[in-house]
Amino acid sequence: MVEVIAILLLFAMLLILLRAAFAAQIFDLVLAINTFGTVTILLIIVIGVLSGRDYFIDIALLYALVNFVGIVVLLRLFNRKRRGWLSFFKSAGRQPTDD
């Protein structure tokens, strides 16, 4: 039964990668990356259960922390970039478009 769960998680990861490849906006891409990281954490735990090694849970927790910090840094970077673009458009007297 655990093997079936691992295969389903791999299939979900494939679908998430397809979603990330065809993301229309940057926030859709960030959401897909975050979801991929979450499913990866679940897959690490399932592999730990399959192999009978308890330290895989520690690895999954560490990966969750790195995933969370990475997403926060990425969103802060995009927020600063977006504010920078908005101030550029305001100083030029033009209206920004949401592409």
- Shape field: flat
Query: How confident overall, as mean pLDDT?
Result: 86
Q: How many distinct helices?
A: 3
DSSP strand count: 0
Strand pairing plus helix content: what structural class?
Answer: mainly alpha
Strand content: under 5%
Largest β-sheet summary? none
Instruction: For the record, give the distance between the C-alpha atoms at the N and C termini, rounded to a whole number.
Output: 45 Å
Which parts are unreliable, with pLDDT below 50 for 5 consecutive residues or more? none
* Helical content class: over 70%
> Over the alpha carbons, how many angstroms does the gyration radius reach?
18 Å
The helix/strand series, from N terminus to C terminus, equals HHH
Counting structural domains, the number is 1
Question: What's a quick, concise take on this entry?
Answer:
The protein is mainly alpha-helical and 99 residues long.
